[in-house]
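Person: I have long wanted to understand how a fold can be written as tokens. Underneath my words sits a plain record pairing an amino acid chain with its backbone structure tokens. Those tokens are not coordinates but codes from a learned vocabulary of shapes. I should like you to check that the lines agree and flag anything odd. The protein I mean follows directly.
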Amino acid sequence: MFLHLGKDVVVPIENIVAIIDSASIEKSKDSKEFFRIAEEEGFVEKISDEKIKSCIIAEFVEKNGKPTKKVVKTVIYYSPISSVTLQKRANLIDDMYSLEEVYIK
């Protein structure tokens, strides 16, 4: 299943590592430093010009040409959708998937 993060950005739920409220980042010196460095190193993708309400950390496994060589790419999305809404969407999708498994068996 996929989670819509805003505009035309969707990410497979299984790739999401964390959904973080942007207000909580501002309260922690270490978090601010982490996201500042992530921006400098090019890990951040801003979804829109709207106010940032949440940060989503996702990891993607990419094949690097060789069958045995895999590279994990980390992307941090700045989303205009609140972390609460994203969490509700993710849980709703998980709940629907769980119900589907119960009724199919």
The chain is about 35% helix and 35% strand. The longest strand covers residues 54-63. The beta strands are 2-6, 9-12, 16-21, 44-46, 54-63, 70-79.
